[in-house]
Amino acid sequence: MKWQKWQKTKKAIGNIGSTLSLIVLAVILFNVVTSKMSGENPSIFGYQMKAVLSGSMEPDIKTGSIIFIKVASDRDQFEKGDVITFITEENILVTHRIAKVKDGGSHFITKGDHNNGPDLEPVHIKNIVGRYTGITIPYVGYAFKITESRLGAALLLFLPGILLIGHGLITLWRTMRISENYRDSEAQTPNE
């Protein structure tokens, strides 16, 4: 009886893990396809996902995480302590905390939580992409970043198909084994 209960629990855990993996894969796939088609970062209900690949915001935001940001609008007001994602003059996305508000809220001094000092260049409000929502998915950022390359995007498009074919072959093989075992047991059972 305990063995059957363990098998059911194991199957349920496997199903949950598979479902979560498919959801993450679908979200990343959606993000890649829409960004490749439009040339922009996709937004879902005013939110975007961004990969964080440096440790400047540790321990709150782990290296390799995906974060969700609320896309900034013209009416947004930012204050000291807000965590924002912005574009630097070198066209690099950075997520840091506002350490100081300058010029009546048009410029901000930012700092990574794990960095010793503030960033050298102030951030102009027009360079702010969005505000961090506090939602983080650890380690998915690495996969997210890989999909930005052509090879990674192609792999992401073909991987689900390969996995489905593999799953189908395994299911077929198991069904054939069960069928063979059933036939063998029928052949060995004397007829009454």
From TrEMBL:
Biological process annotations from GO: signal peptide processing
Key words, A-Z: Hydrolase, Membrane, Transmembrane, Transmembrane helix
Enzyme class: hydrolase
One GO cellular component term noted in the UniProt record for this chain: membrane
Matching NCBIfam families: sigpep_I_arch (TIGR02228), SigPepSipWBacil (NF046067)
UniProt-listed Enzyme Commission number(s): 3.4.21.89
PANTHER family: SIGNAL PEPTIDASE COMPLEX CATALYTIC SUBUNIT SEC11 (PTHR10806:SF6)
Lineage: Bacteria, Bacillati, Bacillota, Bacilli, Bacillales
Keyword field contains Lipid biosynthesis: no
Membrane-spanning ranges: 12-33, 151-173
Species this chain originates from: Siminovitchia terrae
Superkingdom to which the source organism belongs: Bacteria
Keyword Transmembrane belongs to the record: yes
GO terms for MF: serine-type endopeptidase activity; signal peptidase activity
Subcellular compartments: Membrane
Official protein name in the record: Signal peptidase I
